[in-house]
């Protein structure tokens, strides 16, 4: 294939990007996005603060803009994210206990119902585990409602949209030996054993010199897949430039290709200037929309 989406499709996979609604009017941006990618994630527009700015008052304007752009251009959509400790609306940040639990479940139900039938996979819960060596859940207002908040969110999402794959998504879960990776693995194994509805695990995969692509990345992907879930690389970006950056992209793409249940890769933005990494150059296109070495290597590896 001569584009990322066409090359990925040769092995039955997708290649996606995060899209920001306010950039869709930039024709350089939308031309590249439409040409290269066939799976779309809203970078911010489907998050809790965007979709429920006041309690029980839902706003789908920008989420729908991205969804409709994607569907009109023949693409699929990853929903991101139904429940998360971050980017909560102000009214939710100060809630606790049963009221918060019910508000969270209502949010999951309402948003998944609004997008019912249109989402390939939802990140139902994002970033619920702590960094470091504890292997514990991250402390958050949601976690303080009870350890079962994650499975409650998954059950609500399944009831609202039975056709969407339901994913757990996190970062710093790429290294198989990392306590956080093992903790997520144990949760997914438990969910599968008890029949909690989970279909996939997303690996954000934000890499940089402090957090490089681990040599055991493929082991991580294949170990999760062996639990009976799909795995997806959901927010890929790799700090660097030139051939060193390209080589890191090659390692990530090859690891996914080597795991049959690795169903697709999404990069977290189009051009370096679109990246959430303010001064970095972690993506596949430069600020002018030119293909970087990392692009060519990614295309040739797919
Ligand atoms: C980031 C967006 O890219 C930024 O625009 C926003 O200011 C903060 O969130 N993990 C996630 C993503 O799951 O939702 C985050 O996206 C990046 C880290």
TrEMBL record:
Query: Which EC number(s) does the record attach to this protein?
Result: 3.2.1.8
Top enzyme class = hydrolase
Q: Which reaction does it catalyse?
A: Endohydrolysis of (1->4)-beta-D-xylosidic linkages in xylans
What are the residue boundaries of the GH10 domain, all occurrences included?
1-301
What highest taxon heads this organism's lineage?
A: Bacteria
The entry's family comment says:
Belongs to the glycosyl hydrolase 10 (cellulase F) family.
Question: Under what name is this protein listed?
Answer: Beta-xylanase
Organism encoding this protein: Cellulomonas iranensis
Q: Which residues of the full protein are shown?
A: 37 to 338 of 467
